[in-house]
Design goal:
This protein is mostly beta strands. Helix content is 1%, strand content 43%. The chain starts with 9 loop residues before the first helix and ends with a strand.
Length: 371
């Protein structure tokens, strides 16, 4: 969220999904239950680093803890990117105040172990590969001089050292004349690994410049979901996801797709967040499916594509409808360990924008998902 507030032939563009093809998009999430919330203080520190700007979260099943990536771009003595290890405990199946604890911080570095220059990475999403590698998505800085492109990068999970990058298609790279590529602060906000580890998905928060407008109060925005082969780093599919319009009409405002979490190769949980200074935060959880969706792999623009079928989505929960609950800047989610009754535990996490007076919010949900 903003703080100031090889093209292919048409035949390939309109081809069906690459790789495993979904065979059905029947809804599989039947119930979502609120299981409580907890916060971390906005002024919390670990090893001399300020804890905040937590924009992506992943569950480390081997350790039973979570890793949360900060979107802090760094400052003197403040390394970036960096990930915090968290313990999240549910007492009697509920997340209660004090249920989130900080356990440490891992700095992500260059391949030689040297520090990443401050101001050069805007990390937003995080995922853990089957081998324990850490993968992060970064929005890039298209308005910088020279522009910094968006990226998806893999790091050694033990040392934090850079290993390799995914091959981001040309369509996403910033260009000024004509304006193209990702929008500032509206790029790779999300990141998820498909169960089994074969594919890695990210998505833009809003449309690429050449694909359509950013979200407004009267219209949504056509985001792109981008799928990579996790081993080779090559893109294998792209889909269009239609994000909702901005919910509030007054003051500075923004809305978009802020997180994806893979259920399987065909389905995701999708988190959309809208904000306006007049209306606050609106956060909605969707089930989304690429069944029947057009694979636009390599399309330089979607504007001229005929018969384009976007990803289907179905609203599961508007968090603003929960009694006694006020959502903040929720933009991250991860499955945790299964609950005692077999339901899926879903953790949502908010970015406090690195404001010392504003706590980082954590929310627990229980999901009933068909096998």
């Amino acid at each position: 969220m903003r703080r100031d507030l090889v093209a292919l032939a048409l035949l390939l563009v309109l081809a069906g999904p690459v790789g495993a093809s979904p065979v059905n998009d029947a809804p599989i999430v039947s119930e979502v239950t609120f299981l409580g919330q907890a916060t971390l203080p906005g002024n919390a520190t670990v090893d001399g680093t300020r804890v905040g700007g937590l924009s992506g979260i992943a569950f480390d099943r081997a350790k039973g803890t979570y890793l949360a990536i900060s979107d802090d771009k760094g400052a003197p003595g403040m390394p970036a990117p960096r990930a915090y290890r968290l313990a999240i405990d549910l007492d009697d199946g509920r997340l209660k105040p004090g249920g989130v604890r900080l356990e440490g911080v891992l700095e992500l570095t260059r391949a030689d172990g040297s520090r990443v220059p401050e101001g050069s990475v805007d990390a937003e999403g995080i995922a853990l590969g089957p081998s324990g590698d850490i993968v992060i998505s970064a929005e890039g800085m298209p308005n910088a001089s020279p522009p910094v492109p968006p990226s998806v990068d893999r790091f050694d999970g033990a040392t934090g050292r850079y290993r390799r990058s995914m091959d981001v298609p040309t369509a996403y790279l910033p260009g000024a004349d004509p304006k193209r590529g990702v929008r500032s602060n509206l790029a790779f906000e999300s990141l998820t690994i498909i169960p089994g580890g074969r594919f890695l998905d990210t998505a833009t928060e809003n449309a690429l410049h050449q694909d359509g407008p950013a979200a407004g109060v009267e219209h949504g925005s056509p985001c792109r979901i981008l799928r990579f082969d996790a081993d080779s780093g090559a893109p294998t599919a792209e889909y269009v996801y239609e994000a909702d319009p901005i919910a509030g009409k007054n003051g500075a405002k923004v809305a978009g797709l802020v997180e994806l979490l893979a259920i399987d190769e065909s389905r995701w949980l999708a988190l959309e967040r809208s904000f306006s200074t007049g209306s606050g935060f609106t956060v909605r959880l969707y089930e989304a499916s690429n069944a029947g969706a057009t694979n636009i792999l390599g399309a330089p623009s979607i504007a001229s594509l005929a018969d384009l079928v976007p990803v289907r989505k179905r609203l599961l929960l508007d968090l603003g409808t929960l009694e006694g609950f006020l959502p903040t800047n929720l933009e991250a989610m991860a499955f945790g360990p299964d609950l005692a009754d077999g339901r899926k535990l879903l953790i949502l996490m908010a970015d406090n924008q690195l404001m010392a007076f504003f706590p980082s919010q954590f929310v627990a949900l229980g999901l009933t998902i068909a096998p």
